[in-house]
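[audit] Reproducing an earlier prediction to check determinism. Same input, same settings, fresh worker. If the tokens differ from the archived copy the diff job will pick it up downstream; this log only records the rerun itself.
[audit] input (360 residues):
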Amino acid sequence: MKTKIMILLGFVLMIGLLVGCTSEEDSTNAETDESHTQNEEADLSNETIDTLKVDFVPSRDPEEIVTITEPLKGLLIEELSHLGYDVSTIEINVGTTYEAVGEALSAGTTDVGLIPGGTYVLYDDGAEVILTATRAALSNDSNNPKEWNDNKPTEGLEDEQATYYRSLIIAGPSEKGQELADKVNNGEELTWEDLSDASWAVQSTSSSAGYIYPTLWLQDKFEKGMTDLDNAVQSNGYGDAFAKLASQQVDIVVTYADARRDNEDIWTDDFARSASIWDETNVIGVTQPIYNDTVSVSKSSEVITPELTAALQEAFINIAQTDEGKEVISVYSHEGYQNATAADYDGERDAQEFLRGLNN
């Protein structure tokens, strides 16, 4: 009898174990199925964008910009996926001119543009600014050109960011360029005749550092503008301007304040100069501060929405905090981004209005 009871108890225990295992397995499967369902729902909740187009202005050699910014495609796709957008393709293009990028934003043929403040203001009917770039502050921020020459080379400050920069009027190694530099370094004032006799390399009319603010400098000093110069030629980007300066095709370039840092190696390696860019160039003029470059979006784009705009703001800010992202945005000497509003560029609008009146 005792044996039968033991057998019966064992049988009951075995049934209990089997039921427990089955319940545990069913629970695990249910959790797995629920997890898969949640992941699928998360993926399905993302909005899909086939193509997002990003344009850059040609402030450096276009091929160089394309090469340096190639990783931006993957970085943007990854960041936007975390922010609710699955983007299949990021297209990166470099406009032929600053105006070409502004026109593309206005027409909606590109979605995002990394453009200077001057270009944004010129095309703000069709473009909306969403971010302002921050840059490393420079070791020199003087209004006096001689101080830039006495304290060469100009260096970046790792522990200080700036929301503005300056344009510099720089004389090169030509005989005329050296003559102008000598006057400035001897504490003499330049005359309008000094400058009008020189040959200049300038950028397109919407370039803040390459045209607008140097024009304001000329107006302030001499009540003249770029259009009053007899020997001013438009360059295809700052790299082209420095090539002309190195070959002595021009005596003066107008450029952003840290451009010589960007062209330091090219000056001797590609342009075959025997002395450094710091030895052969001198600052002869310094403009008022210029608010930094923008990330702007198209008001006519078929994909840009307020929600995507907010995601792009966060994505660019996040990308700028990564090592790979810093490499990408260094193409324009950007080091970070902060949210921007149209009102931030009211000073630039005043400059544009002044220039329109000057040219009419």
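[audit] rerun output stored. Observation attached for the diff report: The first helix runs from residue 2 to 45.
[audit] end
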